[in-house]
Every structure is written in structure tokens, then in C-alpha cells.
Amino acid sequence: MGAQSLDAAIRQAGSAVRLLRDSAVRPHTFPVAPEFTNWRSEQRAWRTTCALFDQSHHMTDLFLRGKDALTLLSRFGVNTFANFAPGRAKQYVAVNSGGYFIGDAILFYLEDELFDVVGHPTVINWLQYNAQAGGYDVEADRDDNSADRPSGPPRLYRYELQGPTARPLVEKLTGEPLPDVKFFHMARFTIAGHRVRALRHGMAGQPGFELFGPWTDGGDVLNAILRTGEEFGLPGTGAHVATCSAGPSSSAAISPNGAGAPTRSGTARRHSAAAAWLSWTKRPSESTTASPSGPLTATSAHAVPMTRTSSASST
């Protein structure tokens, strides 16, 4: 049987609601415990101390590289790109040629002519299709989420620190005062001997950072966060907490005594666009190196990009 159009599928089902309700598409699931201690203490952490979430697995990355990359993004997004420059990010809102909403994602401006679109596959599919169909001079390099990836780990780890003690925790990790990083701007740190990029943002009215880098570095970085976090009241937080504190769908969670932390056993698949950006990790360090931590591990779950962009409309 050939591919069926959306219009035909809706007519066959009787309504769009019935089509979605009776869908046979499998759910996207990621390994996570609902709670690691109890809901109250984990819920309190992101308001009073700091919570650690793992966002490594639930989102798809689309690396766009080339002289037409920015043109592609601006043509299919409602955002302004007037002041957009490397080292910044924005909540990207994609539309079709008629201005109808396609979806949203987080857009990272990594380097000159190199972007990373991070989110659910809807926007990624739309941009990838138009990049090919429109004849744009751009290389589209995709890394699916862990539910859809055929094999292997993600290319990048993503650890989010949220709460009042996030700033002093990161300062302790890096061994130096944090630079003045504006909202949805990025900075570079060294943690456990590895280069780390940090996106400054906030969820649910609390300050925070999203730390990311090559997957093979993730275990060392995570161990350093967990060890240093003991001083700042950093607990493992489960999906129940993330659901209530961050948005309508569960966010990622890490347990200090769980399983599934990134290890060096899997080598991330690196195509040319991703590898071009990852080369910055080989540059000389610009900050003090924090000491590696002990052998702690973590568990992860999933999140939705909308949960971390409630204040990003100004970007």
C-alpha cells in the first residue's frame, strides 16, 4: 500500500481526534524512574537548591552547515535573525509558505555557518525536506533521539542544572567565577578536564544552565557534577517532578545511584557537520579545569523542548 495523505487518513478515520486517539504509533519511552527519593523533596529541589536533569536522549539534533544555512532557517521561521550570532540560541518557530505553524525547536548558533536545531522531529523533518527540495547549499546532518536512533549513543550529552544554587555549583565545578552570560547566550567551561559549552536559560522562573558536549566526555562531566552537587543539595529527580515543574510532559532525570550514565564504550557517530563543531573541544582551554570526580552513575529520561523556552520569545 502506498503512502496515505493526512487528509485521506482523517477522512478514513472520521475526524482528526479519532485518528490520533486510535493511532497505532508506538509511544516514545526512555528509561527513568518516577521518583528516586520522594515527590516532595525532589519537587522542592528546583525551587530551593538545584535539580539535575538529563536531556541527552529525548530530542533530535539537526546540524545545518553551509552558506545557505541561515537563509534556510530565516525563510521558514518567524523569528528575527537581525542580531543572531555565534554563541547565541533562540526558540525557533517554523512555519510553511503560507505562515501556518509547523512546530518549534531550540536553535543553537554554534559557529559561522553551523547551526544545531534541537527538538522533536517535526521541525527537523520540515527543515531537512526543504533543504533538499529547495536546492539550498547546506549540509543537513541528523542525529535522531534515542527512541528512533538505529543504534549507538547520542552524539552529544545534555545535562541541565536548574535552581538557586545552580550558579555557585557551576562556579565550584569550573573553579572560577562565572562570566556574565545573558539569557539564551552560551559560554564555554572546562569541567573534569573536558571542554563544555553552557547555554544560560531558566525554567519555571529559576536560573539554570544546559551543559553539553561530545557524548564520550559525558560520564566524566556527570560524575563531577554529582560529586560537587552534594555540597549544594543536588538530588536525583524523577519524571514526576519534571512533569509538574517544567511542563506538560516529563523531563529528564538523573539518579546519583542509578544506572545508564554515558560511558566510553560507545563511539558517537560523527558526520562532517557535527565533527566540524566538535573540533572546538580540541582548542586550548579558556578556564580553570575542575578535578574529575568519583565513579558515580546516573539514569536518564526524556523532556520536551518547550519546557525550557517559556521566556525565550524575546530571542
The helicity comes to 25-40%
Mean pLDDT, rounded to whole units?
A: 77
> From the 3D coordinates, which CATH architecture of the largest domain would you assign?
2-Layer Sandwich
Structural class: alpha+beta
Report the end-to-end length measured between terminal Cα atoms: 44 Å
Number of helices: 9
Q: Mind telling me the C-alpha Rg? A: 20 Å
Number of domains: 2
For the largest beta sheet, what order do the strands appear in spatially?
1-7-10-9-8
Shape: globular
CATH class of the largest domain: Alpha Beta
Helix-strand sequence = HHHEEHEEEHEEHEEEHHH
Q: Kindly estimate the percentage of residues that lie in beta strands according to DSSP.
A: 15-25%
Largest sheet: 5 strands, antiparallel
CATH fold annotation of the largest domain: Gyrase A, domain 2
Overview of this protein structure:
With about 325 residues, the chain is α+β, with helices and mostly antiparallel strands. It folds into 2 domains: about 40-60 and about 155-310, Gyrase A, domain 2, CATH 3.30.1360; about 60-145, Aminomethyltransferase beta-barrel domains (Alpha-Beta Plaits). The chain has 9 helices and 10 strands. The chain has helices spanning about 5-15, 15-20, 40-50, 70-75, 120-135, 165-175, 220-230, 240-245, 270-280; strands spanning about 50-55, 60-65, 90-95, 100-110, 115-120, 140-145, 155-160, 185-190, 195-205, 205-215. Strands 1-7-10-9-8 form a 5-stranded antiparallel β-sheet. Strands 3-4-5-2-6 form a 5-stranded antiparallel β-sheet, sandwiched between helices. Helix 3 (about 40-50) crosses helix 8 and helix 6 crosses helix 7. The longest helix is centred in the middle third of the chain and has 13 residues, at about 120-135.
